[in-house]
């Protein structure tokens, strides 16, 4: 048993107790908007039913010291990624279509070329990042250490739902008499999770900085998005707490509704339900992170039109590029972190050597397939059992693991390989259990209807991934404001390589600090 787990956790339950607690949990989830759209609802524009999001019945233990360390690191990461997004030379070199990974990755190359076209027209005064830094516990040391999986700069999801899962777990434990049943189960070990308020505060800060009365925030979303409630909660928070209106559009909606004044660069949206066109202050992308969001060249042109506008982008194309796995790998090279965190320019704030060492200590070893001719590939082939290979993609399901690496590398030609990085696998502690609850699929619902028991909850050995949310408002070489705003726990069965709630690998969870 790893040192931070505590005995009899999660509690062992009889079948009846398990079914009863599952009902209590799913009822809370359905009542509190901890929701997801079912697969069948993908097509119609106005779905009439929802399912609860996949969830864990009990919170997972997490070492307090490492949780606090991740919260502290978030401030450094907010500034680091803001500065990367403002460093054109660095991004050209690492992600560009001439010298960087954009030369061998079509999607990255397209985004970079579009950005290059528009970036010289006018200095963009401000941009916004809503970030999520993801970590796993690494157990080869005792006690375990915190290791970063990746840093997300676009469409970081599950902020508002994770806030609600923390509420669900406090309720389940309190209402069912688990509080005080162990010295670990007391209020001070359940940290607040106010991610909804925190992320909305970031969007509101951008909107206020734009400072045009009557303007709205634009959410750019994917058609048929199943994780729509996670996004809607942010919309309602902006309206209710900040009196800011949100317009929600897909890229194909925007092809009809968006226009930009080429002199003022003001972006306006005109829709059937709006009486007059509305000026956009801030564009929040919950789409455009994957090639399928760009079915044709017109979609890229539209994305570049949005980039050209004077609305504050969350993220801008350079900030999206900064989130590439290639950037994460290049940051590991000697001197690169110092370039961003201890700048020579005395007017720019500097971080301490301890901060830099702490950040580095949270990284796994990474290298590019472009390392010294064939050396990168050779190293990946030799060590494949301890590695994951990653391309420049977001959204889960894109990585290649362990034994699949050698045959996969052989399918790529020398130039295609350059778009991939190798990362040593984090080895999470073993021996932790959890109860994972998923909404029954259509087939199970049919069986349930016929009186059969649908199998919704399973006990499994699990691995949990912590995400810390933060935001930064920055531009013209300066970070104006940054905040650490909340957290997310996703838990998966220990034998699944990937995580990802949307991709069906994991469930939403929360934590109890130990
Ligand atoms: P994406 O941007 O698609 O989410 P990630 O880098 O987060 O890509 O990888 C997806 C999942 O793969 C992670 O959530 C994690 O579960 C697993 N994973 C990624 N890198 C590692 C690693 N170095 N060690 C162990 N698991 C990893
Ligand atoms: Mg990602
Ligand atoms: Mg991820």
Automatic annotation (TrEMBL):
Q: How is the cofactor bound?
A: Binds 1 Mg(2+) ion per subunit.
Residues given in the record as ATP binding sites: 150, 325, 390-399, 401, 423-426, 465, 492, 498
- Keyword Ligase among UniProt keywords: yes
Residues that bind Mg(2+), according to the entry?
150, 152, 394
Coiled-coil parts of chain: none
| Signal sequence region | none
* Pathway(s) annotated for this protein in UniProt: Sulfur metabolism; glutathione biosynthesis; glutathione from L-cysteine and L-glutamate: step 2/2
Return the InterPro entries for the record.
Glutathione_synthase, Glutathione_synthase_a-hlx, Glutathione_synthase_C_euk, Glutathione_synthase_N_euk, GSH-S_sub-bd_sf, GSH_synth_subst-bd, PreATP-grasp_dom_sf
The Glutathione synthase substrate-binding domain is annotated at 216-322
Q: Which GO terms describe its molecular function?
A: ATP binding; glutathione binding; glutathione synthase activity; magnesium ion binding
Top enzyme class, one word, equals ligase
| UniProt-annotated binding residues for substrate | 132, 154-157, 225-227, 231, 286-289, 490, 501-502
Keyword Lyase appears in the UniProt entry:
no
Q: Which PANTHER family match?
A: GLUTATHIONE SYNTHETASE
Q: How does it assemble?
A: Homodimer.
* The protein's name: Glutathione synthetase
Taxonomic source organism: Pterulicium gracile
């Amino acid at each position: 048993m790893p040192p931070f787990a505590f005995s009899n956790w999660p509690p062992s339950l009889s079948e009846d107790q398990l079914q009863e607690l599952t009902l209590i949990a799913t009822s809370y989830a359905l009542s509190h908007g901890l929701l997801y759209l079912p697969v069948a609802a993908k097509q119609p524009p106005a779905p009439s039913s929802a399912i609860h999001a996949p969830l864990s019945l009990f919170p997972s233990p997490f070492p307090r010291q490492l949780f606090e360390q991740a919260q502290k690191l978030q401030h450094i990461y907010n500034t680091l990624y803001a500065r990367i997004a403002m460093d054109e030379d660095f991004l050209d070199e690492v992600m560009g279509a001439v010298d960087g990974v954009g030369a061998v990755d079509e999607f990255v190359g397209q985004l970079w070329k579009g950005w290059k076209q528009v970036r010289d027209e006018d200095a963009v005064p401000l941009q916004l990042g809503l970030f999520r830094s993801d970590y796993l516990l690494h157990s080869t040391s005792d006690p375990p250490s915190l290791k970063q999986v990746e840093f997300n700069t676009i469409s970081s999801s599950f902020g508002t739902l994770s806030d609600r899962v923390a509420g669900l777990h406090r309720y389940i434990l309190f209402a069912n008499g688990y509080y005080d049943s162990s010295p670990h189960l007391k209020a001070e070990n359940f940290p607040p999770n106010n991610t909804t308020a925190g992320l909305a505060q970031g969007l509101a800060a951008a909107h206020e900085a734009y400072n045009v009365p009557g303007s709205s925030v634009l959410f750019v979303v994917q058609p048929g998005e199943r994780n729509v409630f996670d996004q809607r909660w942010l919309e309602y928070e902006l309206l209710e707490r900040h009196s800011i209106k949100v317009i929600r559009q897909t890229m194909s909606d925007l092809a009809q509704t968006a226009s930009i004044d080429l002199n003022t660069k003001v972006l306006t949206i005109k829709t059937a339900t709006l009486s007059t066109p509305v000026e956009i202050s801030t564009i929040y992308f919950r789409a455009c992170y994957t090639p399928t969001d760009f079915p044709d060249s017109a979609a890229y042109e539209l994305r570049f039109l949005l980039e050209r506008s004077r609305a504050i982008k969350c993220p801008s194309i350079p900030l999206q590029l900064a989130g590439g796995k290639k950037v994460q790998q290049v940051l590991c090279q000697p001197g690169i972190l110092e370039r961003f965190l201890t700048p020579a320019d005395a007017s720019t704030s500097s971080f301490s050597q301890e901060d830099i060492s702490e950040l580095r200590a949270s990284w796994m070893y990474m290298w590019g397939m472009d390392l010294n001719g064939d050396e990168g590939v050779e190293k990946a082939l030799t060590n494949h059992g301890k590695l994951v290979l990653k391309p420049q993609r977001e959204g889960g399901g894109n990585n290649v693991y362990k034994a699949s690496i050698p045959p996969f590398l052989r399918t790529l030609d020398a130039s295609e390989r350059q778009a991939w990085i190798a990362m040593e696998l984090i080895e999470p502690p073993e021996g932790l259990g959890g109860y994972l609850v998923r909404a029954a699929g259509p087939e199970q619902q049919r069986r349930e209807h016929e009186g059969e028991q649908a199998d919704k909850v399973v006990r499994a050995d699990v691995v949990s991934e912590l995400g810390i949310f933060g935001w930064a408002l920055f531009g013209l070489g300066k970070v104006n404001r940054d905040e650490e705003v909340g957290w997310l726990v996703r838990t998966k069965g220990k034998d699944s390589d990937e995580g990802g709630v949307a991709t069906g690998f994991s469930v939403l969870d929360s934590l109890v600090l130990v």
